[in-house]
Structure formats: C-alpha cells, structure tokens
Amino acid sequence: MKISKEQLEEKILPNFKDGEGRYITRAYEDDDNKIMFGTLEPGSSIGYHTHTQNSETMYILSGVATYVLEGGAEEVVLPNEVHYCPKGGSHSLQNRGTENLTFFAVVG
User: Which residues on neighbouring strands pair with residue 103, listed in sequence order?
Assistant: First the structure.
C-alpha cells in the first residue's frame, strides 16, 4: 500500500501532549499503526508521554531533535538518524534549533 504525504490532510496541533508551540502533522492510521510526517517549528515541542500500548520509531529528516527521556536524560538526534521509544518507554521531543524539525514516525 502506497501512502503519499501530499494526499494526507494537514493538521496543526497546538501544545500537543502538553508541549509548546505547534506540531504540524500529516498522518495515516489503521487499527494497528500510525504513520506520521511531522514538523515542529523552532521553540515547539511534543510533551512528555509514555507509550503504554505501542512503540515509536522516528527518523529525522531535517533540523535537530532533542529528546528528553526517563530520568531527565537528553538525547540529540540529527538528520538521517533514528530515535526509538520502546513499548513502556517515555519521552518528549523538542525543537531547540532555529529551523523547522521534520521527521517521519511510525507508532505501532
């Protein structure tokens, strides 16, 4: 099954999961997975949350991603690198840079 980013509806989600700023997404969902093309503008974040029922894999396309992990540890992920949050894991995502942070993510 082919999924085209341009064919997915763009949604702007302010303060997503109690984060800051705007999360801009185009997503496909079925009963088992969510496939997302995401953008966080400079200064924006996705709030800290736990993946109780699934895992998440995020491939960074552009910008610099800063993840805050359990215990407050931080992880910086650059373009062409992947962040993986296993089932039961917790994290938040922040764009502390000066350009848009774009990524491709699969939750399932």
Answer: 38, 60
- Is 84 in a helix, a strand, or coil? strand
Q: Identify any residues that bridge with 61 across adjacent strands, giving them in sequence order.
A: none
CB 95 within 8 A of CB 42: yes
User: Among the residues of the chain, which ranges form H helices?
Assistant: none
pLDDT in tens, 42-82: 999 999 999 999 999 999 999 999 999 999 999 999 999 99
**SS3 (DSSP) at 56:** strand
Q: What are phi and psi of 61, to 5 degrees?
A: -95, -45
Distance CA 64, CA 61 (A): 9
Q: What does the alpha-carbon distance between residue 47 and residue 23 come to, in Å, rounded to a whole number?
A: 11
User: Which tens digit of pLDDT belongs to each residue from 17-40?
Assistant: 999 999 999 999 999 999 999 999
